[in-house]
Every structure is written in C-alpha cells, then in structure tokens.
Amino acid sequence: MTMQKYCKILLIILVPLIVYLMSFGILIYDSDFYTGLTEEYSSLDASQMNKDMVEYFKTGSISSGFTEFSAVELVHLEDVRVVINKLIVLLMILVVLFLVMLRFVENKREILFYGGIITVVIPVIFLLPFDLLFEKMHGLFFTSGTWIFSADALLVNLYPFGFFFSFAKSIILGGFCLGLVITVFSSKLYSLPQ
Question: How many domains does the structure of the chain reveal?
Fold first, then answer.
C-alpha cells in the first residue's frame, strides 16, 4: 500500500474523531445546556452550580458552591477537568494534523465523503445499553472506584444518570448532523481541487 493510501485512510478516520470531539467541545462548556438537562433530570436547582461547573472546567477556579461537595467528589471533578482538557488538546492536535496531511493527498472530496459516512454510522453504538457504555467510558478515563458515589452524594443528585444519557445523546446527534452535512457537501462538491 502506498503512502498516499495510508494518508487517506488516516484522514478518513480523523474525520469522525474530529467531528465528535467538536460536538463534545461545544456542549461541555455550555452551562445553559447543562441547566436544561438538570431541570429535566435533577430535583435540585442547579443553574448557578452549572455556571460554576463550566467555569471550573474552563479555568480550574473553584467557586464557593463547591464547598458542598465531599473531598472524594472534588477529586473526581478535578479528574473530569483533566480529561476534558486532554480531549480539547487532542481535538486541536487532530485538527492541525488533518489540515496539514490534507494538503498532501489527492481526491480530498473522497476523504470527506467516506469520513462523513463513518461519522453518520457511529450512532449505531447507541444500540448498546448506555449503562455499559457509561461504565466502559469511566473505566477508560478514571481510576477504578473513583467515580462511584452513594445515592445521596451531591454530584449524583445534581447530575443523575439521565443527565449523562441525554448529554451523550446530544453529542452523538451533533456529530451525526455535522457528519451528514460533510457527506452531502462532499458528494456535491465537484470544484474541490484534487
């Protein structure tokens, strides 16, 4: 297989990675989105805490409201912030890599088209039970036992399971829609330089 083909395969794989990381990056810093979900799934008024949470994820600055969290919950929130930062840095690296590599391959339209198709197909993972996906994702990113809390923990009551299910669904939906746009756009775009 030629270097050109390896580059094309890598670029096609990068399309869905970038798209879903972008969808994640947009939602993870949107406190209004959090509030919409907490109003639906939490019995607590979380509007201010959601703003504080997003600010914490962005800057690491801890608000006075965070004193209500236990020490274990605060450790988990710091772990979450670190993971978010790593994913955002990964997104930036992948975008730069994609743009640089794209300059050296032929038939860019084909890369976008097949990358878009893979992006559109990825929501099939939602056919798996979400609790299994949730557990595997936490197992991947966090130390065992550091993300399981009692039913009366503030984090669990602010952000119950339904919150995370809807959050994940929104990330997938955002990525799916962008993937659809990329697929349709690339199939119609005949003026793109080869």
Answer: 1
193 in a structural domain: no
C-alpha 115/C-alpha 4 separation (Å) is 16
Total-model pTM: 0.88
Residue whose structure tokens are 């559109």: 120
Examine residue 70 and state whether it is found in any structural domain, yes or no.
yes
Q: From CA 191, how far away is CA 159, in angstroms rounded?
A: 47
Query: Cα-flanking dihedrals φ and ψ of residue 58, to 5°?
Result: -75, -45
Establish if 44 belongs to a structural domain: yes
* 108 touches 192 (CB < 8 A): yes
Distance CA 113, CA 88 (A): 25
The residue type of 56 is Y
Class of residue 116 by CB neighbours under 10 A (exposed 0-12, middle 13-18, buried 19+): buried
Predicted confidence (pLDDT) per residue in 35-54, tens digit? 999 999 999 999 999 999 99
